[in-house]
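Late entry, evening session. Most of the bench is empty. Finally got around to the prediction I had been postponing all week. Sequence below, unchanged from the version circulated by S.P.
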Amino acid sequence: MRINFKNILILLVISYVYLMLGNGILSLTNPDEVFYVQTAKEMAAQKTWLVPYLFDQPQFEKPILTYWLLRVSFLVFGVTSFGSRFFPAVFGMIGVLAVYLLAFAAFKDNRKAFISGLILSSAGFYVGMTRTVFTDMIFSVFILLSLVSFYLGYSDKKRKTPAIIGFFVFTALAVLTKGPLGLIIPLAAVILFLLLRKEISFIFCRASLAGVVIFSAISLPWYIYIYHKYGDIFIREFFVNDHIRRLLASEHAGNDTWYFYPFSLIACMFPWSLFVLFAFWHLIKKIISKAAPVYLFLASWILMVFLAFQFAHSKLVSYILPMFPALAIITADFLDDCITLKRKLITVLSAGLWVLLILFPFALIIGSFKYPDYVPSRVPVYVFAGFELLLMAAMVYSIIKKKYMLNICLISLFVPMLIGFAFLSSNSYLSSVSSKKACEYLLKNHKVQGRILCSKMFVRGVRFGTDMPVAVIIIGGKPFFSPHPIPVLDTDENARRFLEEQKITYCIVSKGIVSTLERFKGYGFKIEKLHVEGNEYILRVSKK
């Protein structure tokens, strides 16, 4: 059987609509998107392609490749929301096509390969990450490409040499995107798979030796250059603080539980969550029955990603994104078998999904009444609820008529439809996720000099939106996990001294910090509330 290029073209169009279309509507959000984009902006201002900068100082939280891609995108699209999100979306689309290719190579089944790509392109968290400026999507797709390359060589020995070299090329690019895990995760998955298959000798060959040389040539020069230039500063920030410390200390204490990742991987595959649960059971059955090697490969892949992060105390959902392509394939395999053999099961699971989906419009309507500041107009809510009810009716019809592929395609529409609703409502909540409007107000209406005082959540966004020096006030709060080279006002004394030195200080802060600053009236300061933009309060503090 040959690859159906019509399916690939359809997936390409679907993934563009699901993953990229409309990426310029929402302004860049706090605190992470602006972190990466501002770093690339400051690199351009410093006229360097090798040293990441933030707050006018070198910063080494992440390697260089994402910043290179951002700068290339800026040359084409300018420093815009769409330009900033362009490459995460492009990599997301590449990931969908790579999943199709892997599933076809493993199963020689175009329908199963198509369902795999469709599931990945419509899984909630995957969609969200293609529409966000993070390193994780780019990193995850490089890992995916490395594992696809390996399996293509494993399944067809004629392709072994270029496939193994491809494996090392893509792992090198992953290491340049996020660090050593770019090699550790895929290599561990491959080694576990080969050990279980009792074929570990497969990787002991000239191609692997050549691959190691190529990997070193691609991945190491930047690290060597930065170490030579910055020495222990780079080692302490990148390796000690951002890698070793994350193993031992929790950046987000609420996430540090044994069930965080198991729950997250199921929830974040929504609307496919129920199917994913049964897909794991289906995968185990296939492995026990010694079915095709791909089942053991996918299990090794999922397990190694899980183990790489499960025992670290700093946990984020984005860390396990590299397992989502494998989850999409095992879910597609389960659904395809259901269509062929167990149609009653797919009906039952679809009914369970209907129960979950029906809760969404009711939750949004209730939320619009409970939080009117975020949803000033309920029209988009009602429009979304109406479309969702139509979608559910179409899903019921497809099951009754036993049109199971149509049902799967209809399910894939839910998250993109939700994204469309979010775009329609963006004006109502934009100021709650972005500092763009607050910065525009401040620069347009006031002659700002000196440092702008910010809450921790807003400080990166204010820097991005104003290009002015900033300071952060965190009295009673937690400091940054990674140090920032800006004044950090963590005591009343530090804050009072800062305000006295500036004479007039403009602030973009949260409501809680407003209460903190009110205390300084007793020290002879005048606190003026100039404007409120969403959850951002714009103040002017001066000596009486």
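Two things to note before I forget:
The mean pLDDT is 92.
The radius of gyration is 25 Å.
Will write this up properly tomorrow.
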